[in-house]
């Protein structure tokens, strides 16, 4: 994997925030699971949010076969896939220096289509296990009709970059004595508690907290 070493992935603006640890790349993708896919077709530049997940050094997206975006991507179009997590607002003494703590991962490449339904089913099971451990054994699996109607695309994480902003308040010396509160406003995404449907027929509530360490809300 090339992490931050190509022309497209070299961080130039605020280069001190660049991270070349692939575990950081993995953790951002795994925590976010919401990608913004950028590409250009006959309509011009487009960015579409998609659910996405990682297995090893590959990321997956899926959707209906009649999706114009998926049709375009599976034909070998170049794209950029971005995952971003907001961790905090940075509140400075001056309006100019207000900022944010964030983690961002970008991957460049081309998607390929997964045609085999058995491989699709295995990939979808992995996705279910990542968001709700044990769920793939509980829910009805996709049948051949459903799997055939769903497009699954995979892209290797061969060219990627990571940028993490977590550097606190950066006020000018001239502003340090201003009577303005300065500091960090943490921003956290939490999961749970589960909310059953009105017609839920199962009395025992499943436990999916292991998928969200430090972020599960009872």
């Amino acid at each position: 994997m090339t992490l931050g070493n190509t022309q497209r992935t070299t961080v130039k603006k605020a280069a001190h925030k660049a991270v070349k640890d692939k575990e950081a790349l993995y953790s951002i993708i795994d925590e976010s699971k919401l990608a913004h896919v950028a590409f250009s077709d006959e309509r011009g530049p487009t960015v579409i949010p998609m659910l996405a997940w990682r297995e090893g050094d590959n990321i997956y997206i899926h959707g209906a076969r009649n999706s114009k975006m998926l049709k375009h991507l599976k034909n070998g179009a170049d794209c950029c896939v971005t995952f971003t997590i907001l961790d905090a607002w940075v509140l400075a003494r001056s309006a100019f220096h207000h900022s944010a703590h964030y983690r961002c991962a970008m991957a460049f490449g081309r998607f390929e289509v997964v045609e085999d339904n058995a491989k699709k089913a295995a990939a979808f099971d992995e996705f279910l296990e990542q968001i709700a451990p044990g769920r793939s054994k509980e829910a009805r699996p996709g049948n051949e009709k459903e799997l055939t109607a769903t497009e699954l695309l995979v892209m290797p994480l061969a060219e990627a970059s990571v940028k993490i902003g977590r550097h606190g308040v950066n006020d000018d010396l001239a502003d340090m004595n201003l009577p303005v509160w300065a500091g960090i406003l943490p921003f956290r995404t939490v999961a749970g508690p589960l909310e059953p449907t009105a017609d839920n027929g199962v009395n025992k509530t499943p436990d999916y907290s292991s998928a969200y360490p430090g972020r599960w809300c009872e």
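The chain has five helices and twelve strands. The first strand starts at residue 2 and ends at 3.
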